[in-house]
């Protein structure tokens, strides 16, 4: 699954299914790889959706959904992410229509995917690295160890890459999802 995120450089595709720690590129902050901006939230509280109403099973004559179910915060299928989001932001409803399925299970999977992307606001920061990190590309997943933040193997994704002088700058995105 891919989502789009906005930034100063425009829209960027972001893979929303991160790997396990063992599948990410290990990077440790040092003199060769340093954070140069603070972590900042991407988006506004109004962008959060933690209770999703899924409409599905279209009627052939009127072409209207005949079923709908609510998933997420305070409803059926409340995941740890939705519960955590509810504690942070309260209940934030959202709606989606899935016209091509009659299956409540498929509707639940669609809602679960949306909750994984929209229930918690992601954060981004910029790191500066020496030329040896030029192999990193947009879309790469990193297992970041940053002693300043007291984190080890934090899964982040590279969403921006710039060559500045004799160094690289990487914008990275993290999204805290409790069940990961």
Structure commentary:
This protein has 180 residues and is mainly beta. It is built from 2 helices and 12 strands. The chain has helices at 80-89, 104-118; strands at 2-7, 10-15, 25-28, 33-35, 40-41, 51-58, 65-72, 93-98, 123-129, 141-146, 151-164, 167-174. Strands 3, 4, 5, 9, 10, 11 and 12 form a 7-stranded mixed beta sheet that branches. A 3-stranded mixed beta sheet has the order 7-6-8. Strand 11 (151-164) and strand 12 (167-174) form a beta hairpin. The longest helix has 15 residues, at 104-118. The radius of gyration is 19 Å and the shape is elongated. The model has no long low-confidence stretch (mean pLDDT 85).
Give structural attributes.
180 residues, mainly beta, 7-stranded mixed beta sheet, 3-stranded mixed beta sheet, 43% strand, elongated
Distance between the amino and carboxyl termini: 16 Å
Mean pLDDT: 85
Uncertain runs = none
* DSSP E strands, number: 12
Please provide the ordered H/E string of secondary-structure elements. Answer: EEEEEEEHEHEEEE
Structural class: mainly beta
Tally of separate helices: 2
Q: Into which percentage range does the β-strand content fall? A: 35-45%
The radius of gyration computed from the alpha-carbon positions, rounded to a whole number of angstroms, is 19 Å
- Major sheet description: 7 strands, mixed
Helix content bin: 10-25%
